[in-house]
Specification:
- The protein is built from 6 helices and 4 strands.
- The chain has 165 residues and is of the alpha+beta class.
- The chain has 2 domains: 68 residues, 2-Layer Sandwich (Alpha-Beta Plaits); 66 residues, no CATH class.
- A hairpin with a 2-residue loop joins strand 2 and strand 3.
- Helix 1 packs across helix 2.
- The chain is globular.
- The two termini are 18 Å apart.
């Protein structure tokens, strides 16, 4: 996975298409797509190593700025993870989802989760192979709390990923 910076003149979709064409010419799997919308102008790209290397090597041509190659074991939140959806679905078998007492935002939709347990379960399963929409969630949060200078947000999880942004 590769973190990149883009701007209004970046040609990201064109870069994805060219990276996939390069992979196909080499008889490799052509996957190159946004895996995480981090924040305005910064995205994490997931895909095959060939496609990511192509993006790094041709960054100037497409006006994108590679920031950091991420040392991960897979192309998370891309279609390369679609086989894992079945395993997640199986892991959820028998789990009861309780109704939340506060809003929970979905990385899959970029919106507030529905209160229906089945819809939450479905969104969590799809999140494995779909991009994380953190930028879209931030936009919702800031529009919702326009009267506050800095609204409070609580990050729950093992790391400090969101806080570092």
């Amino acid at each position: 996975m590769l973190t990149i910076r883009v701007n209004a003149s970046s040609k990201l979709e064109e870069a994805f298409k060219a990276a996939c064409e390069d992979a196909m010419e080499a008889n490799e799997v052509p996957v190159c797509e946004v895996a995480n919308y981090l924040y305005q102008g910064v995205k994490v790209i997931g895909g095959t190593n060939r496609c990511l290397t192509y993006l790094e090597s041709n960054a100037q041509r497409f006006n994108i700025q590679p920031l950091k190659r991420l040392a991960v074991s897979g192309a998370f939140h891309t279609r390369l993870m679609s086989n894992a959806m079945e395993a997640v679905q199986h892991a959820f078998t028998g789990l009861q989802f309780e109704q939340s007492f506060c809003n929970i935002y979905s990385n899959y939709t970029g919106k507030i989760h529905s209160r229906k347990a089945g819809e939450i379960r479905n969104a969590l399963i799809h999140q494995v192979a779909e991009p994380v929409k953190w930028e879209q969630i931030q936009q919702l949060l800031f529009r919702k709390h326009q009267n506050f200078k800095f609204p409070n947000y609580i990050e729950i999880g093992p790391g400090r990923q969101l806080g570092s942004m």
